[in-house]
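User: I'm curious what two different proteins look like when written out as structure tokens. Can you demonstrate?

Assistant: Sure. I'll show them one after the other, since each token string lines up with its own sequence. Here's the first protein:
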Amino acid sequence: MSDPVIEAQRRLAAWRSEHAPIASAVRMRIDRMYAGRRIAEAVDQVVADEVAERAEGKRTHREQTRWAEVTAHAHDPARTREVFGAIVDLYLEDIAGGFDRRLYGAVMAVLPRALDRLVRSRFAITGPIDRLQTLVVDHTLVFAPTHSSNLDSLVVGVALRRSGLPACAYAAGKHMYRNPVLARLMAKLGAYRVDRGLVATLYKDVLKAYAAELLDRGFHSVIFPGATRCRTNEIESQLKLGLLGTSHGARRPIAIVPVTLSYQVVLEAPGLIRHFLSGKSAERIGGDSPSAGGLLAAVRRVLALDEVVVVAFGEPLDPASVPKLDAALTGAYRRDTVLFETHVVARALHELAVEQTGCSKIHELVRLGGCGFASTDVQARVTRVVELIQGQRGGGVLAPTIDPRDPDRMITTALRAWAACHPEPVAVRRGHELTVEDVGVVYFYRNRTAHLGS
């Protein structure tokens, strides 16, 4: 019997060379889907989508020229079918992914050397690894992670490698390709592109058909059901199951694996929460795609911390037998999340701020500015938060670094983590008082416990 991990790499390595048969199979899926439908309406919607102003996924000059050539005859009834097929082909070219085994091997050899201290001593992996290694023999695995950080894809990739699980294809937002270095890497490390700026139904149908074809061909996949990073750091419950929904009716047995990523600190927290507070949660954060230098700087800051990330693989789900996949995933995320000192202390500080000001709405709290509390009051509230977490089943577990009997140490650890990660102070201790400097960031970390109630 061949090694399923090596077999998965071989399959991915043939991805680019097999673009033609994959594209042909996707076209057949689209033809069946649109049989008997008015394709002229679908073409009109695509044309409108291409001329609309959008914040992300903007076409390059070369792409605009090609699209103009294809859609020039969109309103000629005699050529509607031809234009429809050409549009599908352009979408397929734009979506198509690839994989280079040698580059993958080199990256996984060099990157963990740079990250070795992080991966070995501050990177915990939990879950039914043995069972997943067994399932991979005759199932296609679809890993469905939570999404908090630009580091998520890297963290999941390293966790899969360290757990003896196969390399995967994964959907990546097209805006990530704007960085030329990242674009070249992603194009050869298993990514296929998703242009979230497009709203045309035909594009979404081609994307889903492409993902479904990969699953049928045995491509193990990583799909983020939250689609984009959660701006508030809550455990995701409003999931988008479009790509995950392609697992229904697959010819090969599918197992969907919840993956809960728990971070002591989220490097982009200030930007994410500012975006939420400005009312732009649905929009991509401009200029937020990580550069190679930015990733290295992030890693250096992370290395200064104690335990930083836990990757928890959940029990695999059979999409054919789970009636509400979104509820099952959310339940797994809440159960497997690890709550660090940053979350516990932020919860305590937020509760005290609400009580002190009488304001429960975050926008009002932010306008009021920072709050100060006696250290003894913060310690007492931290203890109550720990008791709340310990008293609820299925709501997450405390990080192993936490000593429930020592709230002052938890406060010190949280303050140190925030100071190491974020350039602007989040909260500071002055004598016997603790002052909140950035209410928004405290709210961001507090939200990891939002599902626990009061």
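Here's a second, unrelated protein for contrast:
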Amino acid sequence: METEHLTAEQLKAELKKLRDELCDMEDIHSFTFQKTQVHISAEKASNMQAEFDEECGQYRERIALIEKELLKRGAL
């Protein structure tokens, strides 16, 4: 995503969207691994955790990039 071509308002909207999506992912992950009684094999659980960690990392990187751009513009 090229952040320098977007307006501050567009960046703020994207930042909110990304934060909301990350929060949703974390809620689903928490429910799956902590609040259900469903049995998941250790291998599948490990794979799911690795995918979750990778995806969350990507969201956090994009969030950090947008926050950096907004700070640079004095808009955060």
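A detail about the second structure: The radius of gyration is 16 Å.
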